Amino acid sequence: MEDKRIRILKALAHSERLKIIEMLKKEPTCVCEMNEKSNFSQSNISQHLKILRDADLVKYTKDGNKVIYSLANEKLMEVINLITKISNEL
């Protein structure tokens, strides 16, 4: 079984998934709104969200026909901010 830390790092290791996480840090959002705010296709966003869900980084709730995504843990932004600081220092 793959180490959960590795699954999380793999899920974060894609620019589009990082952009999705950046969108979700502001507020819970549905795929349709992510589509409007980005250049990603709806199917592409859904594929990336599945990877993020499988890594337990995002969660979702249903609101009628909409599926609303949010960060599963706010500490995720601390990790991303730390990685950003490290990358800026290199």
Give your account of this protein's structure.
The structure is a single chain. It is globular, with a radius of gyration of 13 Å. It has a 3-stranded antiparallel β-sheet. It is built from 5 helices and 3 strands; from the N terminus they run ααβααββα. It starts with a helix and ends with a helix. The chain has one domain (4-89): Winged helix-like DNA-binding domain superfamily/Winged helix DNA-binding domain (Arc Repressor Mutant, subunit A, Orthogonal Bundle). It has helices at 4-12, 15-26, 31-37, 42-54, 75-89; strands at residues 29-30, 58-63, 66-71. Helix content is 62%, strand content 16%. The protein has 90 residues and is an alpha+beta fold. The longest helix is centred in the C-terminal third of the chain and has 15 residues, at 75-89.
